[in-house]
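Subgroup meeting minutes
Present: P.N., E.W., G.H.
Scribe: E.W.

1. P.N. recapped why we're keeping a running log of single-chain structure predictions: easier to compare across weeks, and new members can see raw inputs and outputs side by side.
2. G.H. added today's entry (104 aa).
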Amino acid sequence: MNWLWVLAAAAAEVCGVVGLKKFSSEKRWPHLLLFIGGFGLSFGLLYLSFQVIAVSAAYAVWIGLGTTGAVLVNMVFFHEGRSAGRIAAMVLIVMGAAGVKWLS
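Output recorded in log:
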C-alpha cells in the first residue's frame, strides 16, 4: 500500500505539470487549480509514503516516475519532440529510480 502513495504522488505530479503547461499559455482558474492542486496533492501523498518507506527510495521513485510521466504526456498531448535519445533517457531515469528502490 505504501508504494501506492508514491505512484499516486507521481500521477498527481504529472497533473500538476499539465496544469502548469496549460496555465503558462492560458491564464484560467481551472488550469491554476490543476497546477496548484496537482503539486499540492503530490507532496501530500509523498509525505504519507515517508512514514514507512525510506525517504531516499520514495523520493527517487517519485521523481523518476513523475519526470517520465510528464515527458510522455507532453510528447503525446502537446506534441513535444520524440527522439530515440529522449526515450532512452527516460528508460535510464526509470532504471535509476528502480535501482535505488531495489537497493534500499
